[in-house]
Amino acid sequence: MSAPEGASAAERAVWEALGRVRDPEILRPITELGMVDEVRVDAAGRARVAISLTIAGCPAARRIEEDTRAAAGGAAGVTGAEVVVGVMTPEERRAFTERVRGGRETRPQQFGPDSLTRVIAVTSGKGGVGKSSLTASLAVALAARGLAVGLVDADVFGFSIPGILGLSRDGRTEQPTRLDDLILPPVAHGVKTISIGMFLGDQDPRTTAVSWRGPMLHRTIEQFLRDVWFGDLDVLLLDLPPGTGDIAISVGQLLPQAEVLVITTPQEAAADVAVRSALVARQTGQRVIGVVENMAGLPGPDGGVIEVFGTGGGARVAERLSDAEHGDVPLLGSVPLSPGFREAGDRGAPAVLADPADPAAAAVLTIAERIAGLGRGLSGRSLGISPAP
Ligand SMILES: Nc1ncnc2c1ncn2[C@@H]1O[C@H](COP(=O)(O)OP(=O)(O)OP(=O)(O)O)[C@@H](O)[C@H]1O
Known about the structure:
Elements (H helix, E strand, L loop, with lengths): L8 H10 L17 E6 L4 E8 L7 H13 L6 E8 L2 H12 L16 E7 L6 H14 L4 E5 L7 H4 L3 E2 L2 E2 L3 E3 L2 E3 L2 E2 L2 E5 L18 H14 L7 E5 L6 H9 L4 E6 L3 H16 L3 E10 L1 E2 L5 E2 L6 H9 L9 E6 L2 H9 L3 H4 L4 H16 L15
Parallel strand pairs: 2-3, 4-12, 4-13, 5-11, 5-12, 13-14, 14-17
Antiparallel strand pairs: 1-2, 6-7, 8-9, 10-11, 15-16
Helix pairs in contact: 1-2, 4-12, 6-7, 8-9
Bound molecules: adenosine-5'-triphosphate.
């Protein structure tokens, strides 16, 4: 929607400014989404903007209201701005969800084999190697490069993504917005993020144990991929639980075209199990695109490096996964131990944004650049186009 005919110059300026206000969950302009009902600017330059939100008090409401006021107030010829917030009628909401979907149905799966979204599942053999920290940081780094990025935290037992991305504070995790059968994921640092930790209702994730059997886990991942509206993504990252359990197998079945990124530490024991988790992914048809070594040497105060977890694990995993059949699996980078990187994650402000000069953050940024540059092979895939008759 844009300024109606007969609008004054100041009203047109307000409409134009509102075109730069994005819904923080859908990441599209509120004018395009039909959320602006009316713009009036009186002779004294006072603007009155009427907007309609999907649900009263939806998590994004205050942000949209503030951004709208700021945008209208800053438009040429405007001396002050008032924002009147209304709620869409069920009819308007239906039209809104249609607009969000762009006429497409959410079902079946959004990330089927013909989708142009690169799906990258991040796996590790054992826990605690920094897989979640690296997945979240890579997602943020790729989004900062201008890509549309989604992140599914499929680490059901150890979901830590909401905390690392600042979506969880004091035991309360930000909730997705539900619009009828559409689930809109919260956006953190430009990344559309969904986690099992967002579906625990009022339960405190710090004290809530998730103990689900395989079929329930499978259904949850399936629902994440089907009902959560990510829109058009360039990249979808999945943080898998460590090891080769039910979730890894479900993801392999649901997303056989996914690429796999393997995280290990330099330690022999971590490297051995990392190779095994990659081999399981391969059995389901997924392609291993590379290995990242985390928790490599800790820079010491005297300029030396303390090899807390030894050396060489990343290179060993890459070498063992490279063969004539699968080609060369590269070691995409080695991320040093860094107290600053950990602290930033604990604060919910990833170091790749908050402190890009941090040695671990810098290594992750370089790895993100390499991953973005790898692209995805389209050979053998249907592009969904047919010759003109
Ligand atoms: N390069 C690093 N330097 C310092 N600390 C790190 C680094 N990478 C990860 N950490 C820290 O190590 C801990 C474990 O990391 P994380 O939770 O990301 O591991 P994980 O492999 O996802 O574990 P799990 O799968 O068992 O949940 C976290 O406290 C994290 O902040």
